[in-house]
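Entry 14. Ran structure prediction on the chain below.
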Amino acid sequence: MILLTTSRRPTRRIRTFCRDLARSIPNVVRINRGKLNLDGICERALEFNADRVVIVDRWRGGPGKIEFFQTGTEGLIPASPPMCIADIRLQREFEGTKAKPIQSLTITTPIEKNPQVTNIAEFLSNFLNIPMSSMDEAVLSYSATMHISLNASRRTQITFMLLPETVEVGPCVILSHVVWETEDEVSHRCTPKFSV
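Output, structure tokens:
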């Protein structure tokens, strides 16, 4: 189980985005953050038997960063990498689609392999416990896909599509960059300062 919440003082758009994510990703429970600190979030996660936590942080009134944590006896343990958001599109912004909970989800990527896309897909597959499939396998076995690809601006895009029609229903997240960290070096970080 995964607990999904926001930073303190979320905007309406961030709340809607979190509702969209909770509707799109199986085994996610969404809570309102309120005045909870990180230890309080960890306690709430344990109440729901959630061993993982996702926090959507704000920047300039909109979603700015997605952070991933494991729950532990000493609190929340960061799970690299944080994902910095360039833009989002909510489910209600996709014309002609009706949002409904997704029952079975897989992660797909384009046939042409790209290391950036592959790394993000593998991380999300492991963290969210969602299998990766080819598009052909996905159409036969799943009701939806979280499709990870590069958009026209060469930024990583994560979007949800219903199968077998491959109709994009959202939400859609365009990443500005991902903070991959190693013990010896840290790649560039999100430039804005966030308050978790």
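The longest strand covers residues 167-178. Will compare against last week's run tomorrow.
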